[in-house]
Design goal:
Layout: E1 7-13, H1 19-30, E2 35-41, H2 52-60, E3 86-89, E4 107-110, H3 123-145, H4 154-164
Parallel strand pairs: 1-2, 1-3, 3-4
Pfam family, one: LMWPc
Protein name: Arsenate reductase ArsC
Organism: Variovorax robiniae
Length: 168
């Protein structure tokens, strides 16, 4: 990886409507040109759109939402798709979700987050779940974007990203 090329990071989840969308937008906001984030789902529903509460929480945090859309990971398997350097699953294994598997050679890590769209309660309680998820994602991304450039070769990137999974 050259120091001039951004590191492409793909965040994967099941439906690509909440956690992976939050992570994509947050990393593009925080990455300072060193990182370029994308997101996708292993099985987005027909006509899936980003969760409106995810978009609201991002907007209130001052993070751009233009261009965010739910999409299948098949888009990133096409010949003209950007090459991914790091693939991070953000679904929650503990909740019994099936997390997507990414074939190929990018570095991989799993950062599990509970699905905020599954929270029951008042609209304010649901919105708070999205805020808390964004906050948790941003804490890990803060560590990722501040890794020294020397740490960002493929093997170091994978071990660093996996180590961040234990940070909260």
């Amino acid at each position: 990886m050259s120091n001039t090329q951004p590191i492409n990071v793909l965040f994967l989840c099941t439906h690509n409507s909440a956690r992976s969308i939050l992570a994509e937008a947050a990393l593009n906001h925080m990455g300072g040109g060193r990182f370029r984030a994308f997101s996708a789902g292993s099985s987005p529903r027909a006509n899936q759109q980003p969760n409106p509460m995810a978009l609201e929480v991002l907007s209130k945090a001052g993070i751009a939402t233009a261009g965010l859309r739910s999409k299948t990971w098949d888009e990133f398997g096409k010949p003209d798709a950007p090459h991914m350097d790091l693939v991070i699953t953000v679904c929650d294994n503990a909740a019994g979700e099936v997390c997507p598997f990414w074939p190929g050679q990018p570095a991989t890590a799993h950062w599990g987050y509970a699905d905020p769209s599954e929270v029951q309660g008042s609209p304010e309680q649901k919105l708070e779940a999205f805020r808390q998820t964004l906050h948790a994602i941003r804490r890990r991304l803060e560590l990722l974007v501040n890794l020294p450039l020397a740490s960002v070769d493929k093997l170091m990137l994978q071990s660093q990203a996996r180590e961040l999974a234990s940070k909260s």
